[in-house]
UniProtKB/TrEMBL annotation:
SMART domains: BBOX (SM00336). It holds the Pfam family zf-B_box. It comes from the Eukaryota. It comes from Nesospiza acunhae. This is TRI26 protein. Residues 71-98 form a coiled coil. One of its GO terms (molecular function) is zinc ion binding. Keywords: Coiled coil, Metal-binding, Zinc, Zinc-finger. Residues 22-63 form the B box-type domain.
């Protein structure tokens, strides 16, 4: 659920966990544009935050790449859920026919 919300916000160009006016300013600490996504923390980072000790060893992706990656993951999981739903509906229908 959290990943889906992150992907939705990223695809709309929204900053995660920030108000719209803060998004325009960029990083709250450094007032730099948010350029990368930290996979470990699920947060948008500016270039300065990215080089800090807190994130230096983390895996980061450029925003467009992060959006694309999470969209692909969500679509794959959605397809799996649709397939499972179809199987359940088939089983339900078969059981109803058997009961008739």
């Amino acid at each position: 659920e959290r990943v889906l919300e992150l992907a939705r916000r990223l695809s709309r160009g929204e900053a995660l966990g920030m108000e719209e006016e803060e998004q325009e300013e960029g990083c709250q600490r450094h007032r730099e544009p948010l350029e990368v996504f930290c996979k470990e923390d699920g947060a948008l980072l500016c270039a300065i935050c990215r080089e800090s000790r807190a994130h230096r060893a983390h895996t980061v992706l450029p925003l467009p790449e992060a959006v694309r990656e999470y969209e692909e993951q969500i679509q794959a999981r959605l397809q799996t859920l649709k397939d499972d739903r179809d199987k359940l509906l088939e089983l339900r229908e078969a059981e109803m026919r058997r009961n008739w």
